[in-house]
């Protein structure tokens, strides 16, 4: 993965991680352009989304260099991941598994009584998990 973002329901970032860091602004722009597709998919799912436990949105859109994937929690927090298009070894079920791992780690943060929902995430454990996941994919 090149970038991993968590965005609150109002679309401001809760967490951003880029590898390499020099392209962070470019990837951040890519993530924000994908939010329209996320909202479109959520509204198309409608009530089915409420009943679903699996909130994986799949491929939001491909570009020449990157593929953008999305996931939404039941509290409307959006996870967006940008991966290289050249990485053909990465399958849909692996992306889904990565989002589940992210969601589980995010849930752990939300269970922390010292974390205020809506604040940026500053957690060494979460950073370590995201970095290991991203290095595994690169």
Automatic annotation (TrEMBL):
The protein's matches in InterPro entries, at most eight in alphabetical order, are given as: Longin-like_dom_sf, Sedlin, TRAPPC2L
Tell me if Transport is a UniProt keyword of this record.
yes
**Entry GO CC:** endoplasmic reticulum; Golgi apparatus; perinuclear region of cytoplasm
Entry keyword Cytoplasm: yes
Superkingdom of source: Eukaryota
Compartment(s) where it occurs, according to its Swiss-Prot or TrEMBL record: Cytoplasm, Perinuclear region; Endoplasmic reticulum; Golgi apparatus
Q: Which CDD domains match?
A: TRAPPC2L
Q: What is its main location?
A: cytoplasm
Q: Which UniProt keywords apply?
A: Cytoplasm, Endoplasmic reticulum, ER-Golgi transport, Golgi apparatus, Transport
What Pfam families does its record include? Sedlin_N
Q: GO biological process annotations for this chain's record? A: endoplasmic reticulum to Golgi vesicle-mediated transport
- Family, similarity comment: Belongs to the TRAPP small subunits family. Sedlin subfamily.
Q: What is this protein called?
A: Trafficking protein particle complex subunit 2-like protein
Q: Which organism is it from?
A: Cinclus mexicanus (American dipper)
Q: What is the lineage of its organism?
A: Eukaryota, Metazoa, Chordata, Craniata, Vertebrata
- The gene it comes from is Trappc2l
């Amino acid at each position: 993965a090149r970038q991993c973002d968590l965005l609150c329901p109002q679309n401001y970032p809760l967490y951003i991680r880029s590898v390499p860091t020099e392209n962070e602004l470019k990837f951040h722009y890519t993530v924000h352009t994908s939010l329209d597709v996320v909202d479109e998919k959520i509204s198309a799912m409608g009530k089915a989304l409420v009943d679903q436990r699996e909130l994986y949105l799949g491929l939001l859109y491909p570009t020449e260099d990157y593929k953008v994937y999305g996931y939404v929690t039941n509290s409307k927090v959006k996870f967006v991941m940008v991966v290289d298009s050249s990485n053909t070894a990465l399958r849909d079920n692996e992306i889904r598994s990565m989002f589940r791992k992210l969601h589980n780690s995010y849930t752990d943060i939300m269970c922390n009584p010292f974390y205020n929902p809506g604040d940026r995430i500053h957690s060494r454990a979460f950073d370590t998990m995201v970095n290991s996941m991203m290095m595994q994919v690169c």
